[in-house]
Fold these 2 entries.
Entry 1:
Amino acid sequence: MLFLALLLVSSCQNKRKPNYQYFPNMYEPVGYEAYGEYDVFPNGQEALIPPEGTLARGHSLYPYENTNEGYDLALLNLKSPLLTSAIDSKRGKELYEIYCGICHGNKGAGMGKLVKREKILGVPSYADRPITTGSIYHVIYYGKNSMGSYANFLDEEERWQVTAYVEALRLELLKDKE
Amino acid sequence: MFQHNMQKFSLTLLWLIFTLFFSSLTHAQDDDPIKGKALFNANCAACHQLDKKMTGPALRNVETRLYEDEGLDREWLYAWIRNSSALIKSGDDYANRIYNEYNGAAMTAYPQFSDQDISNILAYTAQEKVTPPAVATVATTQTSSNEDGFSKMLVLSALAVLFTLLALGLFLVNQTLRRFANKNDIEVKKAVKGPSLWKAFVKNQFLMLVTAIIFLLSSAYFVYGYLMQIGIDQGYEPIQPIHYSHRIHSGDNGIDCKYCHSSARVSKHSGIPSLNVCMNCHKSIYEVAESTATEEYSKEFYDGEIQKLYNAVGWDDENQRYTGKTKPVKWIRIHNLPDFAYFNHSQHVSVAGIECQTCHGPVEEMEIMYQHSPLTMGWCINCHRETNVKVEDNGYYEKIHKALSEKYGVDKLTAAQMGGLECGKCHY
């Protein structure tokens, strides 16, 4: 009997479904939660893209276009707004190793883990490209060919930190080449 | 006779050496598809694949294709690969046509390549397509798994047979004994009925009381246990709309958690990556390798799941462009605190420097995501009592740390001593 009762109780538990709750009205949010689905939003989706023509606070307008010409202009003209004293290579390294190292390798030689496992090919070594501060930032912002954009992972200041770190890696690589 | 033979022999030897020498010479001039493959993977594979359109066209047998369709020779290819934009600017007809067909995507220039390098690459692109012996591998994996299952079945059925034999044996022994007894006129006692144990038990008030208490206590124990786990979703493992495997991404391929859950660094939520994050890699990764398939999930299954991702973002893999028709993926939320409790990721991940795995368990081994921790208040409080605050490199904490460590007379403060037990920190 007891055994059967236990069986009955335990069979109600199903790892595919959430458990029961006491007083669910205390558990469930009244406000709109991140990623929630509510009727007031278009498509019911709480997660929305910022409206066109707006800038988030702390960001500034990026004047170069996502074209070959825009790339060439950025390559020549764009300079980092960071003062040399504001460059924090420790943070740059940390961010670089999270977001870029997986393809470009932590040394920047184009031998990240995904490349070594032949999942993604054609990742260049920074030393083999005639890149500048401006072009690196441009590529982080828009991506290039099969590399995607990293603008939504990193905020503006972080992008410049990573750019500075990539330049440092490139100098290392060029030194090793000689 | 012998002399004659000898002469013939030396002649053939000479001839052999000669041909060997020559063939090796011609070989040295032959194009080397292996070197070509290395060059291709390092330089071209970002935009080209052999059998699939990517940023640029598929390149298998380009040389013959261009020759047959357009009458272009190898010289054209040398010029194109060394500097395609110069060729386009020079007004070359086909160069302009293909450039416009690809919406003016610029191919990188490779002025550093020698003729030999380019020949090697072309030799690689001219190789026959090797279709992997998919059928064979599937068959072998199946037989091996079958064998495994089969041996288990064998052991089980052997055991079952053994037990039935034993039971049969006992039954037979019993029968024969009875028969003997009957023959020898010995009376076999039937199990005694009568004032049995049960009645004695019911009559004994004390025993009844004790059993009743034990019964009540044990059921109270179980009921309490059941009530306590209400509202706790430890082990919750829903089926997600896309079978996304943390084992493959974070375990096998070592992708950092924060690559996808990038807001964990800076905000309350860790966030679920939007699909453009997936497409950073999956523009190039349109199928899984043969070796990724496991016994439980086949390559076809995984490829189908990547296809689901393409359908959701509206990516047309054939033509390498977005169709603009998107379908949001409704991931099912797993970890969820009640509305009256406040938890912030950046406080724990960035400030305290706690690994994701401390709270979320061995994520890099999870084929399907599940909730590892109970997420009860006791769980939070326990950790706050045991874990020290990370004060190094944190100017913000310098003063308060000094004041508090004097107050408590300790070197290292736990999160609890910093105020991590105050109700208002987690409840508002």
Entry 2:
Amino acid sequence: MDVSTTQIVLWVVVPYACLAIFVVGTLWRYRYDKFGWTTRSSELYEKRLLRLGSPLFHFGLLAVIAGHFVGLAIPKSWTDSAGVSEAAYHFLATWLGTLGAVMLVSGLVILIYRRRTTGPVFLATTRTDKLMYVMLAASILSGTWATVHIQILAGGYGYDYRQTISPWFRSLFLLQPEPGLMLGVPLAFAVHVTLALLLFAVWPFTRLVHAFSAPVTYPLRPYIVYRSRDAATGGGSRTPRRGWEPSTGRREKR
Amino acid sequence: MRVMGQMTMVMNLDKCIGCHTCSVTCKQAWTNRTGTEYVWFNNVETRPGLGYPRTYQDQERWQGGWTLNRRGKLTLRAGGRWKKLASIFFNPKMPDIHDYYEPWTYEYDMLLSAPAQEHTPVARPKSLLSGENMKISWSANWDDNLGGSTATMQDDPVLQHMSSHVAEEFEQTFMFYLPRICEHCLNPACVASCPSGAMYKRAEDGIVLVDQDQCRGWRMCVTGCPYKKVYFNHKTGKAEKCTLCYPRIEVGMPTVCSETCVGRLRYLGLVLYDADRVGEAAATPDEQDLFAAQRSVLLDPHDPDVVAAARRDGIPDDWIDAAQRSPAWRLIHDYEVALPLHPEYRTLPMVWYIPPLSPVVDVVTSSGNDGEDGRTLFAAISRMRIPLEYLAGLFTAGDTRPVERVLRRLAAMRSYMRDVNLGREPVEATASAVGMTGDEVREMYRLLAIAKYDERYVIPTAHAEIADDLEEMACSLDFEGGPGMGGQGMQGAGPFGSSSGQPTPVAVENFHALASRQTADSPYGPTTPGRVNLLNWDGNGRPDGLFPPGDGTGDGTGGSANGAPRGAS
Ligand code: HEM
Ligand code: SF4
Ligand code: SF4
């Protein structure tokens, strides 16, 4: 199959660039900006809409992420050999995916509406937040559009991305990219993939980093944490930290 | 036995005049920043009253602290680890800003810049959160001195636990002030609630702190603390709390609230405790036994076994010595007059209170009797059920006996010392009626009434070997961005906008806040450098912006490099 330069740029260069920014950016931010690494929760300002929006959004998102994992990372041959029929797979993926997407999108709408209309929340929205929301909404809406438009409304089993997008995605991680697989992928999917890649590129520089500190180890530690003053004492506040030095020295405690 | 040290505060409520100096100086030192406008590490509430945040003591509603589950095991009242994780996207039990109050400022600039007009211009209140005009309807101290209490007092959670007739008579009966800081609990529910493990209790001095680099803003600690003494900084998205002024404590200085207390009613000292017995004491089945259980966790620093165990556990000799001289230990153990605040929350709080006798004395005197006569006072104490029950609701989970015992001791001291002061023969029977000797009464009197500075504060310093690393030993003006460096300070933003980058030491951030306030341009909201407000200029130095920018030598970023007053360093 002939692969044009555009294809290589779109399906090899851009993905690797975005993923590289994603990984290096995250490590760099963790090293230099632990103080800025937070959810920046706005629950203090407003609770009524957040009570609804945040769980809808996040639980929907977790479902969608799980779906993406199954769809992209697990080869079709595995599910086939496990005896999952095409019909069953399509049914589950589409309907669970749609349920997740409905939660996710309605949560997102509530969250964005809340950000814009609640005075204190809007005032506390930074430019990075706005960029993040644009990118996030673009990825989510394009993904939802692709699912609804191609997987549900088009009839049949929809588009079988597990023959094209999924192997291409895995080929990136096997370091043998096969951009040719992406030839002829429906536009809606191509757009969704590209937007998602761009979202990953801005990810480390936004509040989305909070997702990486999901406190999964909390159930494993004893309730009360003791630390020695002497161990917590690093360089003293006089030591100026340059931009290239990690922020692991003395910690500010309040 | 595992011996640990705990820096402990005792407050003598009889002496609090409700002046709020402690709150103000604390705020100036620690929370005078954007994001912490509503944060009062120290607050003084009038009792009866709603407290701050409103009705924080109502744990049915706020679910703070610990409770025993059906099997009698100690669990967080708001739910254990799994429930915390399940509700992490929205914390259902967190107070919002309206339970505290919406911070505001006034549009002072209007007074200067309004055009000539018929009516005098007014400075309207502006919300510091939304920038909009606002109607002030609550604040940190709205029901001070029972102000408006006929409308709100019924909601006092302590009163609600007492019978209803009591609530009505209460206002005529008495009123007192309750200054509050973080309790630096032995079994801190805030620490237990933190999913990231960013909060910790220092092993040496028991101070409970938030690691600003590890906090991820899950805001569970706010719910966990039954005293609502962890606050969420809404600008940085991180939790902040009373630090017991650890940079001062480390070098042997008392906290700012203690140092500036007008009534000189705060005592600071080290107590030793057995860390292995904390969990067991906190799980005591009957709430009313918790006070005794909490006391039993503390170790007698004069006991040779305890001293040997303390040495084994690495506590230096000068710290053991400080524990032996500790005023907190004397008030808690020797004279038994200090009580913990709400032991029923099971966090083993370590700020103790000597309950006030003065309301009883006031009633006795106003009824024409002798308010310093021991027998009259004893009789009045046992007759005045309402204050007794209220104090018991605060300090002993409702058990009036310990409160009564303390008040009788205070009354005995009053009566005994009056005889001494009038040159009469003191009545030993007065002392022995409360289980003390005359000498003990005199000693207690000296500690409570004379209260010399170095008797009130016995603070062992952190060790010289690490002195270089202590917060205040380093000249914080030399900090990057500090006044000594001419950097960007608080006006500069980290790589990801405001609130990212390295945390600025509070002293440095305050310096910039004050400097930029001198040059404030905006009538409300976070002060930004710009035009000079001559009203705030004290005539010293040359504030930025007073003259137009010169030939480019000054950087004009509001830093100190070019003329803002320099700290004496
Ligand atoms: C499982 C890991 C995650 C956890 C524990 C988590 C938790 C949180 C929390 C506690 C907040 C603050 C809510 C508030 O009080 O204002 C938040 C906000 C947010 N999270 Fe997550 N999150 C996770 C994953 C993600 C992911 C993967 C994304 C997006 C790709 C995401 C997007 C957001 C957004 C956009 C907000 C801001 C909501 C607002 O407008 O205030 N989160 N998250
Ligand atoms: S009083 Fe202080 S130590 Fe105790 S739970 Fe609250 S914040 Fe934690
Ligand atoms: S400074 Fe002292 S006397 Fe004044 S309110 Fe505070 S604790 Fe009470």
